[in-house]
Design goal:
This protein is α+β, with helices and mostly antiparallel strands. It has 28 helices and 28 strands. Strands 5-4-7-2-1-10-13-12 form an 8-stranded mixed beta sheet. It has a 5-stranded mixed beta sheet with strand order 15-16-17-19-18, covered by helices on one side.
Amino acid sequence: MPGENLSRDEAHERAALLSVDGYEVALDLRSAVGESTEAVRTFRSVTTIRFRRTGDADTTFVDLVAPSVTSVTLNGRALDPSAVFDGARIALDGLADENVLVVDAQCAYSRTGEGMHRFVDPEDGEVYLYTQYEPADARRVYANFEQPDLKAPYRFQVTAPEEWTVWSNGAGERDADGVWRFAETEPISTYITCVVAGPYHYVTDTYRRGDVEIPLGAMCRKGLAKHFDADDVFLVTKQGFDFFHDNFDYPYPFGKYDQAFVPEYNLGAMENPGMVTFTEEYIYRGKVTQAAYERRANTILHEMAHMWFGDLVTMVWWDDLWLKESFADFMGSFSLAEATRFTDSWVTFANNRKAWAYRADQLPSTHPITADIRDLEDAKLNFDGITYAKGASVLKQLVAYVGRDAFLEGARRYFKRHAYGNTRLADLLAVLEETSGRDMRAWSKSWLQTSGVNVLAPEVTYDAEGRITELAVLQEGEELRPHRIAVGLYRLSGGELVRYARVETDVAGSRTVVEGLAGSERPDLILVNDDDLTYCKVRFDEGSLDTLRDHLGAVTDPLARAVCWSALWNLTRDGLMPARDFVAAVLAFAGRETDIGVLQMVHAWARTAVTHYAAPAWREEGGRLLAEGGLRELRLAGPGSEHQLTWARFFAATASSEADLQLLEGLLAGTARIDGLDVDQELRWALLSPLAEHGRADEARIGEELAGDDTASGKRHQVRLLAARPSAAVKAQAWAQVVESDTLSNALVGAVIAGFAQPSQRELTAPYAEKYFAVIERIWAERSIQIGMDVVRGLFPAYQDRPETLAATDAWLAEHADAAPALRRLVLESRDDLARALRAQECDALEG
């Protein structure tokens, strides 16, 4: 990995030296099918780059990661590949004012989801290809200047097996000579070019509105065609185009709009203009809840927002990654709420997306939204909860601060002013100052250029009659920011917690008196950040916290309830509320939660509370309580309802007793039944998982399940469950598969890691804590950055949650001060999670 890095300084120097007029890329992908005797299966890539020298120097380099280069020609002059190519770069000297570079190379198909990924479907043996480049993997497929500010038009041509179809960013067709040729793109960055090729199942539609007509396509593997609900994908797509055309006043600029759902994808999706790629996990093989459809719709709209924020206007360098990701994350929820059937998307945002942000912003690796990105390794790790979810949360606060109309008008001016160009923070602030009349520099300094999350808490006094005399909001944090918030007062009435007063106010400094609430009757609950307008952690006064302990389920407003759940979880993570108290709230009130997305998040938090934050002496009891509660709610849920399905999955995830495991075996065998519960194939794997973890499903039993689901998804489940079995030999084999071998694909590496560490198997995996610290530097040096991240994060001994593990982590960090900064960041983040768990366990032990 280190030899493939690119620094910000190098990128800036190269951008000052040259501009790119265009690329012509010819790929021959016929080698993707059939047997291969090569150690590394490769394809031919021929790239012609036309570029101009705009600076004084006459030397530069072009990026290419490939096993070999056949020839390099610069302005008709042949260069010796062995002299100019080092495996990651091709050195160029003697540049003219106008240059033509031709590189003929053998590039490698990928098994890691980076570059040109090659997947063989175990169901029918068909081969599928797709590319994934962000932030800098286009150089694994063709020679280029791999940085976002050297935009250029592209012309792709692809030779592929005769029975295949090929897609790229532009519209294409197969010529009489059998070569697919694609229309030239608008000027775009390298990382959003794309090729998808194979025998994909393809469905078409058209978006029409006024003079705008956009051809639509959606595709998946043939084996998933029977599950593919393309009509719903197209519905959300059309609703999104309506919303963005109405609000952006800039028609979609990239011609067609294809959406490919592809296998073994490392991301949720990628915004390649005209050819968006998604993980095929968004094609549901069994029954799922509306929350799953909402997540898919949000992702569709997130990627569509990128057509403007990111593709049309692109950041200069990865420091301003937020200029695309924060905006797309915000616009995904914004458009989802206003243009689709998922009108409560802000509830999911408050409970789910912001939880990701709160965690990331309290890690030692926290950073400002506008980050300091020194190189590509930094960039890869900054696709994180701060860049996405905190950035989106801050934009929601910005809309409250400047007003919706000013915000959208600023976006419209931004697109028109910088179309097909590159921007920095100052460019966006300039248009927002124009449209809002606000001083955006001060706002930016507080919100975009500092890190950390504020804590907002109420401070209230009452008179003798119990009326409020003064209510103030206290703010804590290293940076005391300006917040536009709502404060809500709630009281119990007829068994419900109902809001009876609400005031919007600006909060600044450490203490702000809220005007307009003096004289109000004593509330049972004071909710700071009602309606979730700002980004903060919410605390409660003692009376409000007591109310929530007894009546959280009585909060009638779904968004207010989501904010309360989130606040209680932050108290638990911060070691201020015992984990068993959070579990008690879940057992008492989760059954009344109406929002499925919130319920699923609460379930995940409850499991984390028991496995990581509960005192070790209480873990077994906590797990038993969760399983009992899960089964109770499963039996109470409406037959066939999505609540029933959600509780079924939760029960399976927490089951461990003999009776629980016997019930799961009965549900799988058909000898036990819960009215209305459809045990489809995906649910079967969920029910089988705890049986494997607890030694009730051996290799043969898991193999039987695979025989009934011999698909790519089934194979991932099988691999995960095989690694989850409680055996020292199994753990040794799983470790060797991931650490000592690189033969598994990215998806199967992830499956083995997911199965390896189970909360009930702490003793079995204890020997691997020392081994982990011995191998991670080698793994980071030898594997691709994606696999390196997966291994370093996934195999950290988080279940060895003892002070000794913390000491071992600190020792590694002290002894490896010169390790790659990105590697150290991953270890530091895991160390912080471990330290937080130990603090929470101390808090919980006091309760016991």
